[in-house]
Here is the input.
Amino acid sequence: MSQQSSETVVFLEANGVGQGLGGGGPSYAKVVVGSHFEAQLVRLQGLCANNELTEVRISYAPDMWGPEGVEDEMRMESPELVVTKTDFWFTDRGRHSDGLVETRTQSMKELFELLATADGPIYLGSDPAAVERDVMDDFPPDEDAASEAFR
Here is the structure.
């Protein structure tokens, strides 16, 4: 676990699986990671390791499923954080859907290593650049703030 005292925004690749999503669903999940979240992962990882469990699930939602508005559209109602001995992911179910949404499985070791050196948002997935593009489509940089720097 890193010794950071601040929070880092992490974006995880996400998708919908199953029926009833109509090709929709989230493309990413946003998680604000601080010492509490890291400690939670380590605690749940320990439960798996010490009790010969394949996974532990708790009711815990990411800070946001994106793109913006997908949570309201799907009416998410069953958030879970799933932790194994080495990995974690988020999953949820929409109220009016037979489908499930989930983030891509993420290595805790890799996350902790990235958090130790991060100086901005972290994008994780099979193609981190694609995750970053999805996020930037939702939250384009503030052009007014950028132009202020040149005045």
Summary: Helices lie at 35-51, 70-74, 108-117, 128-138, 143-148. The chain is about 30% helix and 30% strand. Confidence is low (pLDDT under 50) at residues 144-151. The two ends are 42 Å apart (CA to CA).
